């Protein structure tokens, strides 16, 4: 509290700002390229067919539930690459995995996706992005 009144940064803020300096240009460019590789991109633990954590599993299930067209979706397994795992968190300034992007825009993690699915916002985002399967093809 005193630090904020005096305009001082906490050690956590300084550490967070310092850690952002460690994302290499190469890694940043690779993430940027991955984010733009499909209309819907998910950075997750594991793969859609074999998620390695409950949050990734739940997110993939919600994408299917919403009727996401698989041809407009790409997933990246962050467990395969430590630079990607650390880099994506820095790129978005979001501490958890999975992370969902639609048309290059960061949407959020599992908690955000669950909330958006419950209130209908996720479906609206997908409709606007034109990434849903036609009604007749949905299960």
Description:
- By secondary structure, this protein is an alpha+beta fold.
- The chain has a single domain (37-137), classed as 3-Layer(aba) Sandwich (Glutaredoxin).
- It is 48% helix and 16% strand.
- It is built from 7 helices and 6 strands; from the N terminus they run H-H-H-E-E-E-H-E-H-E-E-H-H.
- The protein has helices at residues 2-5, 11-19, 25-35, 54-66, 82-92, 110-119, 121-129, and strands spanning 40-44, 46-47, 50-51, 73-77, 99-102, 105-108.
- The strands form 2 sheets. The protein has a 4-stranded mixed β-sheet with strand order 4-1-5-6. A two-stranded antiparallel ribbon has the order 2-3.
- Mean pLDDT is 87; it is low at 1-7 and 9-19.
Within CATH, the superfamily carries the name: Glutaredoxin
Number of alpha- plus pi-helical segments: 7
User: What is the string of SSEs from the N terminus onward?
Assistant: HHHEEEHEHEEHH
Helix content: 40-55%
Q: β content, as a range?
A: 15-25%
**Strand line-up of the largest beta sheet:** 4-1-5-6
The CATH class is: Alpha Beta
- Main sheet characteristics: 4 strands, mixed
Structural class: alpha+beta
CATH architecture: 3-Layer(aba) Sandwich
3D shape: globular
Question: What is the CA-based Rg, rounded?
Answer: 17 Å
Arithmetic mean pLDDT: 87
How many E strands? 6
Spans of 5+ residues with little confidence (pLDDT < 50)? 1-7, 9-19
Total number of distinct structural domains: 1
